[in-house]
Amino acid sequence: MAQWFDVAAEKELPPGSRRVVDAEGLQVAVFNLNGELYAIEDVCTHDGGDLASGAVEGDNIVCPRHGAKFCIRTGAVLSPPAYEDVNTFRVRVADGRVQVEISS
């Protein structure tokens, strides 16, 4: 069953920003890319480090530990040392609040 988790007020996540939320032990990074909201699991599939603190290059995130790149929009891995995609999550704005959907 899916559950929606609150991230922040929509105004607190302007274009170019990001926010990490703990959704019952799952770390999810939410990004605002030019007004569009995307969410990925905040875990590099290479070594388990966080991704959200990495550099954003267009719609890509660069792992701050070893430089693996992932597409924020799709979760697709784009360069080694990672070889597996990251999980993505649906994002919505409800009553002015940004929320992510997590399936249990």
Q: Give the fraction of residues assigned to helices.
A: under 10%
Shape designation: globular
- Cα distance, first to last residue? 6 Å
Major sheet details: 4 strands, antiparallel
Overall residue-averaged pLDDT value: 95
Order of helices and strands: EEEEEEEEEEE
What attributes characterize this protein structure?
104 residues; mainly beta; Rieske Iron-sulfur Protein; four-stranded antiparallel beta sheet; 11 strands; 50% strand
Q: Which helices and strands appear, and what pairs or packs with what?
A:
Blueprint: E1 2-9, E2 18-23, E3 26-33, E4 36-41, E5 56-57, E6 60-62, E7 69-71, E8 77-79, E9 88-89, E10 91-94, E11 97-103
Antiparallel strand pairs: 1-11, 2-3, 3-4, 4-9, 5-6, 6-7, 7-8, 10-11
How would you concisely characterize the structure shown here?
This protein has strands spanning 2-9, 18-23, 26-33, 36-41, 56-57, 60-62, 69-71, 77-79, 88-89, 91-94, 97-103. The protein has a 4-stranded antiparallel sheet with strand order 2-3-4-9, with no helix packed on it. It has a 4-stranded antiparallel sheet with strand order 5-6-7-8, with no helix packed on it.
Give your account of this protein's structure.
With 104 residues, the chain is mainly beta. It has a single domain, classed as 3-layer Sandwich (Rieske Iron-sulfur Protein). The protein contains no helices and 11 strands. It is globular. The mean pLDDT is 95.
